[in-house]
Design brief:
The protein has helices at residues 12-22, 70-73, 89-107, 110-118, 143-154, 177-186, 207-211, 235-244, 284-299; strands at residues 2-7, 28-30, 40-46, 61-64, 83-84, 135-139, 158-163, 173-176, 190-193, 223-226, 249-252, 272-274. The longest helix is centred in the N-terminal third of the chain and has 19 residues, at 89-107. 36% of the residues are buried. It has two domains: 2-88 and 282-299, Rossmann fold (3-Layer(aba) Sandwich), CATH 3.40.50; 89-274, Rossmann fold, CATH 3.40.50. The two termini are 27 Å apart. It is elongated, with a radius of gyration of 21 Å. Strand 9, helix 7 (207-211) and strand 10 form a beta-alpha-beta unit. The strands form two sheets. It has a seven-stranded parallel β-sheet. Strands 2-1-3-4-5 form a five-stranded parallel β-sheet, with helices on one face. Helix 1 (12-22) packs across helix 9 (284-299) and helix 3 (89-107) packs across helix 5. With 314 residues, it is of the alpha/beta class. The chain is built from nine helices and twelve strands. Helix content is 31%, strand content 17%.
Length: 314
């Protein structure tokens, strides 16, 4: 019985060392070496090469090494076994830090003051809206969205949430589904996207959605923060909305193509803040510990936590 590490873009030997320390009695193998495919019962994956998990006859569980699982379903030969995702309190906290930081940057006009500092301009404009007068809308009310919404409320923002299916969350005004989306957008000054990427949400942040955001708020126009998935957004539509003035600014941590190409106009647009997909970096040892705990639970016949619904793909 072994654990297969199937990943690209990360240092696989560092991950092997972590898992060997946590699971000393279990062989840990990688795609880059010869191994007994019949012995693999568990896979820990991050953007594995499509088809590389086929032909594992005794595979029992696939663990995503990240909070998202959309990359798994991009593999049309993915084995039909349970999939568990990472739900890490540290990752959740980091995401909320990012969301609160950038909502406050927008509220307090920090990018404007950065420009004034560069230009040595002392502007005594004292117009500073209160957080309570700014309406934040959080799209996606999973673990990350609920925590971010709560912490934004602590800071005083007027917060509401939207999800594809109804969610009852104490103290939070919630909208759901296609019918609830227009009213949700119409009361939103800062749109925060934390949705998973599915066939239903791909390209959802487009011209139509952006045009539905509130134009009557205290910020002088709506803002977008996308820290969910790059496939949610249509970047040409975001740029067009910025140029048309229907969107006042955007903070983007994720992109249609990553790394963001050097020629992308997003890099230099004065109303865009770019961060390199680091809003909620997983702490590797914490992730490995969570997966090792799940493996021990499975071996003991206990139910797995944080299973993905294959129909919803999250």
């Amino acid at each position: 019985m072994s654990l297969l590490l199937a990943m690209t873009g990360w240092h696989v030997e560092d991950w092997r060392s972590r898992f060997k320390a946590l699971l000393p009695d279990m062989p840990v193998v990688t795609l880059g070496e010869a191994f007994d495919r019949r012995a693999v019962h568990y896979v820990a994956s991050w953007k594995h090469p499509p088809g590389s998990l086929a032909g594992l006859p005794n595979l029992a569980v696939i663990f995503s090494l990240g909070a998202g699982v959309d990359f798994l379903f991009a593999d049309d030969r993915l084995p039909e076994v349970p999939i568990a995702r990472v739900v890490d309190p540290d990752l959740t906290t980091r995401m909320s830090e990012y969301i609160v930081l950038h909502c406050l940057m927008i509220l307090r006009q920090q990018r404007r003051y950065d420009r004034q500092q560069r230009d040595r301009l002392w502007d005594d404009d004292r117009d500073q809206p209160a957080a309570r007068s700014v309406r934040v809308g959080v799209m996606g009310l999973g673990e990350l969205g609920r925590d971010a919404a709560h912490k934004l409320q602590v800071m005083g923002f007027d917060v509401a949430g939207w999800s594809r299916s109804p969610r009852a969350i104490a103290g939070l005004q919630s909208f759901a589904g296609e019918d609830g989306l227009p009213d949700f957008l119409a009361r939103t000054d800062i749109l925060v996207s934390l949705l998973p990427l599915t066939e239903d949400t791909r390209g959802m942040i487009d011209a139509t959605l952006l045009a539905g955001l509130a134009q009557d708020g205290r910020l002088g126009g709506p803002y977008l923060i996308n820290a969910g998935r790059g496939g949610l957004q249509v970047e040409a539509d975001i740029l067009a909305a910025l140029e048309a003035g229907t969107l006042k600014g955007a903070t983007l941590d994720v992109f249609e193509t990553e790394p963001l190409p050097a020629e992308s106009p997003l890099w230099s647009h004065p109303a865009v803040t770019v961060t390199p997909h680091n809003s909620a970096m997983s702490e590797p040892l914490a992730v490995a510990t969570l997966i090792a705990t799940q493996i021990r639970r499975h071996q003991a016949g206990e139910p797995l936590a944080h299973l993905v619904d294959p129909a919803r793909r999250y």
